[in-house]
Amino acid sequence: MVKKEGIYGLIIRYLILVAVAIPNFFLFYLIFTPLTVYSVYFLLGLFFNVSLLSSIVILIEGILPIEFVEACIAGSAYYLLLILNLSTPGLKLKRRIYAIGFSFAAFLIINILRIFILSIVAISGSPEVFDVTHKLFWYLMSTLFVVGIWFAEIKLFKIKFTPIYSDFKSLYNKSNLKK
Length: 179
Fold this sequence. Notes:
Blueprint: H1 2-5, H2 7-21, H3 26-47, E1 50-54, E2 57-60, E3 64-67, H4 70-73, H5 75-86, H6 93-123, H7 127-156, H8 165-174
Antiparallel strand pairs: 1-2, 2-3
Helix pairs in contact: 2-5, 3-5, 3-6, 5-6, 5-7, 6-7
């Protein structure tokens, strides 16, 4: 696959991944924090009296503050989706951009709904139910969301190669190591 895309394409894909990770996912938080906070604020505002106390804190019914920490925004999940997309060879630029856009949009929507549901559970007043639900979403569902989005991408965008493995396999086949 490296031959079709070229070694420079492969290097560029992996350099982008390194460049995005170096500032600690700053770009993901810069883009997705306001999108997440304001979308949750809007949804909660349809059902409850809400106030925006800061760029990361929503007050529900004047008593329940919801603070959006970095884990709520899930920058690492966006980065994992970017890794899956950029470490997969065989996608033309336009299709790759659409695939990344799809994965980010899908995760953003799922994450907004996750926070909205957790907020409703918190409003219900049962700390035990909130703790269990929050841990279930955090430890199990977040991983399943990313995996599900990736499998949907494979199907929708007809992805035929395996992330990272296909690149290494292609490099190995072109190298002097194979004899």
